[in-house]
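Thread title: Can someone regenerate the structure for this chain?

I was given the following input by a collaborator and told the matching structure tokens would be attached. They weren't. Posting the sequence so someone can regenerate them.
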Amino acid sequence: MPKPPSFTHAAAAVQAAVYSKHSGSDDQSLQIPLHVGDTWMEPAVGCRMQDLTIDEHPGMHRYTPVQGLPTLRHAIARHHARLSGVHTDTANVIVTAGATAGLAAAVGALVAPGESVLLAAPYWPLIAGSIRAFNAHPIDVPLMTDEHLNDVQSADQAVARFEAARTESTVAVYWNTPHNPTGRLMPRDWLEALTQWADQHNLWILSDDVYERYVFSGEHVYTRSLAPDRTISVHSFSKSYGMAGNRCGYLVAPAAAISAINRIMTNINYSACTASQLAALNALGPAGERWVASARDQYAELGAWAADRLGVQQPEGSTFLFIDVTETLKHDQYAGDLSRLLQALAEHNVLVAPGPSFGPYPNHIRLCFTATEPERMRSGVEQLARFIAGASPGQQQ
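Best answer:
Regenerated them for you:
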């Protein structure tokens, strides 16, 4: 046990900045922030904080039950059942202070210190931090980049990757689809084989479905539809409805797991923001559905344009591209050092996320093509394309 001025091993193991350590200009109006997963769009009319009043919602500044507003949990249960095809009761639902807090509470409830969780890599960075914060071990399972997918072309091979990483300390697996950071979808046959393997070895499954509404080609398969008795399905109003600042998400899982997670949540942040839950409830109505349909069309167009401009595969879903910059790093000014490229981009006010935040990817960067207004995003991608091609940002290709 550390004493002042020392801190715990967990605090030292968790990064404070995972998306960018480079800030660019002090004038934020000049920055082109492609590094954080967000949207430039405001939520649907009727689903914004300014639409909520205490006359219509008396008590909106009080606590809610830890598991969430009963009306919201009931609406989520219906919503999730409709999308996933799995019967869902309110006992299967807990509302959380964003999907991030929900996943952290799930780790705290299901993974003991010293145990390990296998992560389909590259992965959303904060899951590794949450595991380390609870003194457990995240284990990379390289799977989802072009390089990996060229080697892993069958469900059996995907299972073999996980099995090679499994030890007696393994208690859970994590994957996300539509995928952050690559924009890929995990195929149905992979998920069927992987859930059968997880059942064989009695493992929990943390299935991150936060980009479920943003599929541009192919099919999103809900892991919970394949393994409802061991899956914790993770969802986010931030991603689905443009409410990142509200910090409201939810988990759908077996009732016993929800009960355990509820105990962890009680002692971390008690309940999600009441006003955020009211806005989320409105988003599950017709206005939210119209917003999603419009956003999906715009996101698909922007993602296809950015991919074509950068010469990478168009995203099948989510809001990200994961780009291999190995050839760019061979130029003398970078000398194989990704941080030099990131700093050079930041000096031209283009911020992207470093590949090592997502696993063992020292030669990759991630960008979010929805994080800022379309014209600003296009300007940033044009600059990035020139850097990748080895031209100075002032030169045309």
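The chain is about 40% helix and 15% strand.
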